[in-house]
Amino acid sequence: MPDQESFSILQASSITYRFATGPSKGKKALVLKALPDGDHNSTSGLVAKNSGFSLHAGVATKAQEREKLEKICRYIARPALSEERLSTNVRGEIIYRLKKPWSDGTLAVKFTPMEFMERLAALIPRPKSI
């Protein structure tokens, strides 16, 4: 199926922070950086990093801890993007400010409107086949 193949290409490119279409095909998104402060590089406890992904497994709750359980559920159900951190610059490019700087000092990512649409499309889950 051509649609399935196109979607796979979009997702694969998004995971590697590269664009799959347009004039920026194969290139990484432009990032705005500051000097990293080192606070986000935990190497102890229940933290794992591999291939650019990180997992923090140090959160646990018991069934009777309703407030803590609700906080975890809200975190899991949060939207993929925060509308408050999304803006456009004078050239019409889309700037997405990160909540916290990445470990390499990245503060924001800049996209053209089409590059941004490509990234949004990669977030959409595939339909389940029946």
Task: Describe, in plain words, how this protein is organized in 3D.
The protein has a domain at 2-39 and 79-123. It has three helices and six strands; from the N terminus they run H-E-E-E-H-E-E-E-H. Strands 1-6-5-4 form a four-stranded antiparallel beta sheet. The protein has a two-stranded antiparallel sheet with strand order 2-3. Strand 4 and strand 5 (94-97) form a beta hairpin. The model has no long low-confidence stretch (mean pLDDT 80). With 130 residues, it is α+β, with helices and mostly antiparallel strands.
Question: What keywords describe this structure?
Answer:
single chain; 130 residues; alpha+beta; two-stranded antiparallel sheet
Short description:
With 130 residues, the chain is an alpha+beta fold.
End-to-end Cα distance, whole Å, is 16 Å
C-alpha Rg (nearest Å)? 18 Å
Low-pLDDT residue intervals, each spanning 5 or more residues: none
Report the order of strands and helices. Answer: HEEEHEEEH
Strand order of the largest sheet: 1-6-5-4
Q: How many strands, what sense, and barrel or not for the largest sheet?
A: 4 strands, antiparallel
Measured by DSSP, the beta-strand proportion falls in: 15-25%
The helix/strand class is alpha+beta
Shape: globular
Percent helix among the residues?
25-40%
What is the element layout, followed by pairings?
Blueprint lengths: L1 H14 L14 E4 L13 E4 L2 E4 L9 H11 L9 E3 L5 E4 L8 E6 L1 H11 L7
Helix pairs in contact: 1-3
